[in-house]
Amino acid sequence: MTRIPENDREIIETALYLPMLLKILERDKVLIEQGSFKIKSPYVDIVENAIVTVRKDLKNAEDHLHKEKIKLAEIKRDADFTMYSFIYKGVEEHHNYFNPRLRNRTEELLRLYLQKDSTG
């Protein structure tokens, strides 16, 4: 059972997922730029806008974690699970995340950020 309030847990998970999303977006931007698209700039613009928004949201999450003295670290990874350590108010908790769930949630966020930035 976690002692971390839901609001702080959501911010911790934001700080967990957004770096993964940022890595994907940056890699995809390179692939688009190198790809054989007839007109690349609209795709690049959408991805770049998403990157800017993700970076801003990640900075806000990291600022909150720093202010509240919350620490997050990946401590173990295997084929099925990734374990993270959350230090909250001096108490360390370990949380296992199912790797397909990490991937699925990152994909959900990717869709949200791309839609958000393509619709204005």
TrEMBL record:
InterPro entries: YhjD-like. This is YhjD. It comes from Peribacillus loiseleuriae. The lineage of its organism: Bacteria, Bacillati, Bacillota, Bacilli, Bacillales.
